[in-house]
Amino acid sequence: MTTARWLTAEEQRIWRLFIQACESVFAATDTQLIRDSGIPHGYYEILVHLSEAPGRALRMTQLAHASTYSKSRLSHAVARLEERGWVVRRDCPTDRRGQVAQLTAEGFAALAAAAPGHVEQVRKSLIDALTPEQMRQLGEIAAAINAAAADSGSKCHDADLC
Amino acid sequence: MTTARWLTAEEQRIWRLFIQACESVFAATDTQLIRDSGIPHGYYEILVHLSEAPGRALRMTQLAHASTYSKSRLSHAVARLEERGWVVRRDCPTDRRGQVAQLTAEGFAALAAAAPGHVEQVRKSLIDALTPEQMRQLGEIAAAINAAAADSGSKCHDADLC
DNA sequence: CCGGTGTTGTTGAATAATCAACTAATATCA
DNA sequence: TGATATTAGTTGATTATTCAACAACACCGG
């Protein structure tokens, strides 16, 4: 590596604002979800992805990818969701190694009960804070960031996330 | 609360892009820091704030606020940084309840060694992915989000974070 | 069909974060 | 002053996450 280009004062300012903004949004949504529904945001995401899948069921690996969970983390998380009765694990019919996580009626009900408050909080923390133009810009910025990550991720050899 | 306004498809798309973008940036920076320096990003932030403080020292509460750590989390984290020899705790001279966390020479050296690689990663994950105009927009967007959080936070009664 | 290789998912140990309870010191105010 | 409330910070228990090792199965070439 050649001499590192240091951040300009402006770049550093924006970087820190960005960190703080992300943390404040996620802290607010997570706090609201736990307070009103007892569901941490990570679990909420799992339930959402299951609820949108055909048959409200997904293979563990697909679910992990959709929720950006590692396989291990998902395995532990689904175990806890199973204890709550919100998810069940079934054997995969086409691959005997595989497991299919399926949302139960109770899980769907819990999600349905939690969603309105969560949506309201997302509005408060993010959407209502921005102008429509800024929302549009944020979409493009986020897409650009994700594209860059996907690029460098293409040479990723990490155990779980590729 | 009246009937919740559901998210439009476009709002939901942007919200998910935003979540994913934040996760990809923080995952990348954290992975790089741990791989190259053995310092998780949260610890790095603590070291940075100390390094910038007068005397490279800060009261625990100020440090917690600067790093958006809860008091308990900071207390545990500083204990671990102390084990590494990067920080020392001293009694506060003006308030006998207080503790002052001070960066050691070793801690400063560790930070200095880690910084270039970290900066490089921030460029890769965020800055180089965006146009200068988008960086400017991101700064304003983040500022707006933080301002909204500060507003609703003004009625916050949480034990730690206010 | 058999052996190597990659994939799927789980497990338990180690590490980290959260939560509630607590000590000790300070601030407030009658 | 003295009673009470606040604030600073720590601690230990609970819970969550990561990490490395693993078992079971699928796939692929000979």
Describe how the helices and strands are arranged.
The structure is a homodimer of 162-residue chains.
Chain A: H1 9-37, H2 41-52, E1 57-59, H3 60-67, H4 71-83, E2 87-91, E3 99-103, H5 105-125, H6 132-153
Antiparallel strand pairs in A: 1-3, 2-3
Helix pairs in contact in A: 1-5, 2-3, 3-4
Chain A binds a DNA duplex (30 and 30 nucleotides) through residues 40, 42, 59-61, 64, 70-77, 79-80, 92, 95-99, 159.
Q: What would your notes on this structure say?
A:
The structure is a homodimer of 162-residue chains. Chain A has 162 residues and is mainly alpha-helical. Helices cover 65% and strands 8% of the residues of chain A. Chain A contains six helices and three strands. Chain A has a three-stranded antiparallel beta sheet with strand order 1-3-2. In chain A, strand 2 and strand 3 form a beta hairpin. In chain A, helix 1 crosses helix 5, helix 2 crosses helix 3 and helix 3 packs across helix 4. The longest helix of chain A has 29 residues. The first copy, chain A, is globular, with a radius of gyration of 19 Å. The two termini of chain A are 25 Å apart. At the A-B interface, helix 1, helix 5 and helix 6 of A face helix 1, helix 5 and helix 6 of B. Chain A binds a DNA duplex (30 and 30 nucleotides) through helix 3 and helix 4.
